Amino acid sequence: NVPIDLLRIDPAIEAGQRARVAAVRARRDEAQASALRTRLTAAANSDENLMPLLVECVENDLTLGEICHTLRQTWGEYTPSYEL
User: pTM of the predicted model, to two decimals?
Assistant: First the structure.
């Protein structure tokens, strides 16, 4: 067995990142963010090209986590099959 070094994030770095995300969320237009999540859900349920809307989401300070959460709620999460 080869030992694997785990990546350990300094708690101060984590706290700083959490603070930056909280600041972004505090200054953005929450009504606009909510409307974009609703539009993203509708678009994900259609044949619409998502890329322009994803760019708009990012430009309006939606986080990657929020975008992914919205898409997971719509499509679910992929679980690979290991049948041979």
Answer: 0.81
Q: Which amino acid is at 26?
A: A
CA dihedral 59, 60, 63, 68 (to 10 degrees): -80
Distance CA 34, CA 41 (A): 11
Separation between Cα atoms, residue 51 and residue 55, nearest integer Å: 6
Q: What are phi and psi of 11, to 5 degrees?
A: -55, -30
Q: For 41-62, what is the mean pLDDT?
A: 98
pLDDT: is 1 or 45 the higher one?
45
Helix and strand numbers, DSSP H then E, in the chain: 4, 0
Q: Are 70 and 41 in contact (CB under 8 A)?
A: yes
